[in-house]
Design a protein that fits this description.
The protein contains six helices and two strands, in the order H-H-H-H-H-H-E-E. It has 112 residues and is mainly alpha-helical. The protein has a domain of 46 residues. Helix 5 packs across helix 6. The longest helix is centred in the middle third of the chain and has 13 residues. The C terminus is likely disordered.
Length: 112
Amino acid sequence: MTEVDSSAELETIRKLPLEKRYVWRVASALKWGFADSDNLGVEADKRTWATEDFARVMDLLKFRPMQFCMFLKTLVGVEEMQRTTSKRTHSPTVRFGTADSADGGIIGTGSP
C-alpha cells in the first residue's frame, strides 16, 4: 500500500460540525436503535417469530459485534474497548411465565 497525502481531506473533515461526522452518525444510530431496548421485547420476538425470521435477523447481525468492537477499538483503544464490551449490565429484567399464570405471563423482575 502506498502512502497518500490526505491532509486536504482531513482538513475538510476537521471543519465539519460533530453532527455531520461518521462517528456521530454511528453513535446516533446506536442511541436510537437501543433507545427503548429491553430484553422483554427481544424475548417476545424470539418466542413468536418463524424460524426463517430468526435466520434473517441473525444474518443481519452476524458481523455487527465485530464491527462494533473495531469501531470502539479505533475510537478509544484496545484496553478501553475491552473494558467497555466486557462490562456486565445489571439492569432489571422481565421474564415470561405461562399465559395462564395470574400475572398474565410476566413473572417479574430480577437480574439475568
